[in-house]
Structures are given as structure tokens and as C-alpha cells.
Design brief:
Blueprint (H helix, E strand, L loop, with lengths): L1 E7 L2 E6 L10 E11 L1 H8 L14 E9 L11 E4 L2 E3 L4 H4 L9 E3 L11 E5 L3 E3 L5 H20 L6 E5 L3 H12 L3 E6 L2 H10 L4 E4 L5 H8 L7 E4 L4 H10 L5 E4 L11 H6 L3 E4 L5 H12 L11 E4 L3 H8 L9 E4 L1
Helix pairs in contact: 3-4, 3-9
Length: about 350
């Protein structure tokens, strides 16, 4: 079967590998049809993805077809089209027992901690498959990245009475914008990149945009909310400076959710934090309920995914194009591989 292996930072290898069709009773054999390229893949290629080892088969944003099932599988059948929930829990640790499968102590993420979907066929436990007979393979491959934003919005318990600021308009920030606006909350995007702000304004039903980085940023933010500050700030940057500014941007008694991961220590001025009586949360991965919510919303046309995929190529050609997708001038939102 066709396989792409990241041998070491900066080096992909395309190879043919044998297919082992033997299934455990709870497994499904999948034909991989679409693979979305995400920030984790770019970071692994650049050599700065934490908790990562080489060689590794990348890929966890997948649209797949079920081609065989184990004897005990009832969740899906041959021919089903599915999204894959890539957060595998091999142990029933405390977090998993409490329903927090997104952050189990022993969670193994497909394409990060174990080999992922950049291969023609893949075996996974069937319980991690989410079926839809109405969505395309490309839409199904978008469910996982949309799940990161959906889970963050759900963590913040956003309602139509909230006013929301999403900082960072990469794919994860766009996903957060998508689900924040779906609640009916007034939602504004902030970024340093004017092209990405323009894209967000063009494809999302947001109230406005603010370019970050100027001395009058806070003033311009207040203008978007008629003199007030947002009750919820979702930071999708993973940038230490941006994360620290979230405490300044949020309204008193507001909520902050850090979606992006900063690889280091993050500190803040505690008296300022207490003065506003803020709630600070992290958001990691997504829950099975998030996947079901997203698929239902996509099936009901409550989420428009047409603008998300800006670049496409055949699986066999990925190694030719991957370097170009890293360049800002390529203006990549989401690249998609087809098999």
C-alpha cells in the first residue's frame, strides 16, 4: 500500500508497504480517502513538535471508507464513510473514567504518538469512527480540526448573550469563530495578519475584525463592542505575548480559553487576574460529543466548509508541495490530500 513516512525533520519518504488485513474483533480496516494537513504536521516536519519521535507516519484529519470490520463491530459497517476521532486511550485512567477522553493521562494521538493516516489503508478501533451518509470525504476530514474550535467554544459555555473575541485566524481560530458565531454571540476576530483577517471577514459571519499589535489595539477592540470588552476571549495563537494580553482584553468576570499551545512557562500578574475575577481555561483536542455535534451541524448546513480547503493535491505528489505550503505567501488555510 502507498505510504508516506516522515523519516526525520525535513525528510519525507514515499514507499510501498505491505498490508496486514488481520483485524482484532473490535477493529475496522479503513481505506483512507482524504487527509487534511494541520499545524501539527507542519511542526513535526520542522522538528519542533513536542512529544514526538521519528520516523512517523503523519495524518489525523481523515475522511475514510470502511472496507472490513472485526467480528464484534456493530458501530459501523462495510461501505460507511466516516470521520476519525484520533485520540486513542489505551487505558481506562481517571480522566477517561470521568468522560474526559480528550485528555487521558495515556492518550495516544494518531499521527503524533503513533503512526497515522498518511497511508492507503489504516486499522483503528471502531469506537473511534463517526459515520455520516450525507457528508463528503473532504467534509469528514474537516471534522477533527473543526472539533478543536468546537470544543473550546463548548468549554467556554458561550451563549447568545456573550460577546466573543477570537485571537488568531489560522485554521483553529477560524473553527472557533465558526462555532462562536453559531451560538448567536457577537464575535470579533483579531490577528496580526491582515490577509487572514480579510479571509475571516469574507467567509465567516463575524461582527468585525481588529488588527493586533498597535498601541491603540485596546481602544479599537472597545469600538467593536460599543465601548465594552468581550466577555469571552479564545486565544488560538500559542503565542506567549498574545496569551498574556488576553487578560487585558477580557471583561471583568469574563472567561479566557487558551486553545493554542505555548511550549514554555506562562505567567501573569495575579492582582490583575483577581481584580477582574477571571476564569482561565485550557482546551485540548475534542470529545466524542463534539464530533457528533459537528457532523449534525454540517449535515444541517449550519456550517459552510467550502472556503476552508485552499490547496489540494494527490497523495503521491505531497512531497513536492509540502515545503511550499509552509510559506506565508502561499496563503494556505487547509491543504487536502486525495487518494
Amino acid at each position: 500500500m502507498k505510504t508516506i513516512v516522515l523519516q526525520q525533520p525535513g525528510t519525507f519518504e514515499y514507499r510501498e508497504a505491505p498490508l496486514n488485513e488481520h483485524l482484532q474483533e473490535t477493529e475496522a480496516l479503513l481505506k483512507v480517502r482524504r487527509i487534511g494537513i494541520c499545524g501539527t504536521d507542519y511542526h513535526a516536519y520542522a522538528g519542533n513538535q513536542p512529544f514526538f519521535s521519528y520516523p512517523r507516519i503523519l495524518g489525523h484529519e481523515l475522511g475514510v471508507e470502511v472496507v472490513a470490520v472485526g467480528s464484534a463491530v456493530t458501530q459501523v459497517k462495510i461501505g460507511d464513510q466516516c470521520a476519525v476521532e484520533p485520540y486513542f486511550n489505551t487505558q481506562q485512567d481517571q480522566a477517561v473514567r470521568r468522560g474526559f477522553t480528550n485528555c487521558g493521562e495515556n492518550v495516544s494521538v494518531l499521527g503524533v504518538h503513533q503512526d497515522g493516516g498518511m497511508q492507503e489503508y489504516l486499522k483503528v478501533p471502531a469506537r473511534y469512527l463517526h459515520q455520516s451518509d450525507r457528508l463528503s470525504f473532504e467534509q469528514l476530514a474537516l471534522v477533527e480540526p473543526l472539533g478543536i474550535g468546537c470544543h473550546a467554544v463548548n468549554r467556554a459555555h458561550i451563549t447568545a448573550q456573550d460577546e466573543v473575541l477570537v485571537v488568531g485566524t489560522g485554521p483553529i481560530g477560524l473553527a472557533a469563530l465558526q462555532f462562536a458565531t453559531a451560538t448567536g454571540a457577537k464575535t470579533v476576530a483579531m490577528d496580526l495578519n491582515e490577509d487572514r483577517l480579510a479571509f475571516a471577514a469574507a467567509v465567516m459571519d463575524i461582527a468585525g475584525t481588529v488588527r493586533a499589535g498597535g498601541e491603540d489595539t485596546l481602544e479599537r477592540l472597545r469600538e467593536q463592542f460599543q465601548g465594552d470588552l468581550p466577555t469571552v476571549v479564545l486565544d488560538a495563537t500559542g503565542n506567549k505575548f498574545s496569551m498574556s494580553k488576553a487578560l487585558e482584553y477580557v471583561a471583568p468576570a469574563g472567561r479566557i480559553v487558551f486553545i493554542g499551545l505555548f511550549q514554555g512557562d506562562f505567567t501573569f500578574h495575579d492582582p490583575y487576574f483577581h481584580k477582574k475575577e477571571l476564569t482561565l481555561m485550557a482546551s485540548r483536542n475534542a470529545l466524542p460529543s463534539d464530533f457528533r455535534q459537528i457532523i449534525a451541524m454540517m449535515e444541517e448546513n449550519k456550517i459552510n466548509t467550502e472556503a476552508w480547503i485552499t490547496h489540494r493535491c494527490a497523495f503521491e505528489e505531497m512531497t513536492r508541495y509540502f515545503d511550499t505550503w509552509l510559506k506565508p505567501e502561499a496563503k494556505v488555510i487547509k491543504a487536502m490530500l486525495t487518494l
